[in-house]
Design brief:
The chain is mostly helical. 80% of the residues lie in helices and 0% in strands.
């Protein structure tokens, strides 16, 4: 495993630097590197490392969400809250049910099979979106209307809806007595529980930091350890009660910023340094899950379905931003920012196949194809369009 980590670090640095010099997102280089060194191409990664890949990816995602929480102020959140809530479910629902319908036409799926596929694909990737939005906040691009914060908040909740409804359709397929309406009604509860737990943990941590003299490095490790335990609690209680743990993780950072902004800024810089390594783990290991030959099996129909889904999602983003002060350029940027798929598709794309869903192989192929198409296009689109469509504060 140590050799595999060395390969990831050394080649990750090279690919990251190379793609940045080519004026492309560095993470894209690491994603491609993961495909190359993964088990489906060169097979350079130790099977033991791949067996714990999901845990490493989860830790990396926790780090970037803590960074996000430490950068979102209450004032910003208050001003984007209503629109962020609409962005968190309207685009995903339209995309998921849109794909469910078109897959019955193009692939001959039942509507339940289409729903399973639709809500795998519908999840936007926080692993791709969040780092880009944090970069925009640092560069003060779009911050005059708090657009990066808006997308950060919306994208963080989007996955809760997608995964919950995916699980519901999976239950319907297996013959379980599942009520879609009841399951959707549970989503607000899971969000509230995530926020409450994250808020409580954040308050306890703030109190500890006030009462005891702890170095910032140890504070970071303490925050990270507690955040990992919070996500573990979600897994332990999964069959009893749903908790939006990743939203809770972001809330921890938000509470620390709210109660101790000076310490929060220092901690944010520490997490920025950890992210350099965590980013490699996340994107190389996500790439290693991609089987290109499986993606190719999806063919033209797969591309049509993904494109139809993105169109449906775009309509959803436009609907969610109606009535705001965003102009059409800024709305277009929101549409582009909601394109990338990666983390969730890599994590759950193979579940239907493993559970014996008849069309599981096709579902997996389209999920993999969605990563290959939308992750690079979305990342490049965000990077290019942010300077073209958004206003940089301080520049007329």
């Amino acid at each position: 495993m140590a050799t595999s980590l060395a390969i990831m670090i050394l080649l990750g640095l090279i690919f990251n630097t190379l793609f940045i010099k080519l004026r492309m997102p560095g993470f894209l280089g690491m994603l491609i590197l993961g495909v190359l060194v993964g088990p489906y191409v060169l097979n350079w990664l130790d099977p033991d490392l791949l067996s714990v890949s999901s845990d490493f990816r989860r830790i990396a995602l926790i780090i970037i969400l803590l960074r996000a929480g430490l950068g979102i102020s209450r004032d910003d959140l208050n001003k984007v809250g209503k629109t962020a809530v609409k962005l968190s479910f309207i685009p995903g629902l339209i995309e998921g049910f849109g794909i469910a319908y078109i897959s019955t036409v193009l692939l001959g799926f039942t509507f339940i099979e289409g729903g399973i596929l639709g809500f795998i694909i519908a999840a936007v990737s926080p692993a791709v979106v969040v780092p880009h939005m944090l970069d925009l906040i640092e560069e003060r691009i779009g911050t005059n209307k708090r657009i990066p914060t808006l997308i950060l908040a919306g994208a963080s909740i989007d996955d809760v809806f997608a995964i919950t409804i995916f699980t519901t359709f999976l239950g319907l397929y297996s013959g379980s007595h599942v009520n879609i309406g009841v399951q959707i009604a549970h989503i607000p509860l899971s969000i509230v529980l995530g926020i409450v737990l994250g808020g409580a943990i954040g308050l306890v941590l703030v109190r500890i930091f006030e009462c005891y003299s702890i170095r910032d490095t140890k504070k970071v490790l303490l925050i990270l350890g507690v955040a990992i335990l919070l996500t573990s609690l979600e897994n332990m209680l999964k069959n009893k009660i749903e908790i939006a743990a990743l939203l809770g993780v972001m809330t921890i950072g938000f509470i620390i910023l709210e109660k101790n902004p000076v310490a929060a800024k220092r901690l944010s810089r520490k997490f920025n340094k950890i992210w350099i390594f965590a980013e490699m783990l996340l994107f190389i290991l996500v790439g290693s899950q991609v089987n290109i030959s499986v993606a190719l099996d999806a063919g033209l129909k797969g591309l049509i379905i993904i494109s139809f889904g993105l169109l449906a999602r775009s309509i959803g983003v436009i609907i969610a931003t109606l009535g705001t002060d965003l102009n059409w350029k800024e709305r277009l940027f929101c549409v582009i920012s909601y394109m990338p798929k990666a983390t969730v598709q890599a994590a759950i794309g193979a579940i239907p196949l493993s559970l014996g869903v008849k069309s599981g192989d096709v579902i997996l192929a389209i999920a993999v194809l969605a990563i290959l198409v939308t992750a690079p296009l979305g990342a490049i689109g965000i990077k290019w369009s942010s300077k073209k469509l958004l206003t940089t504060e301080g520049i007329d």
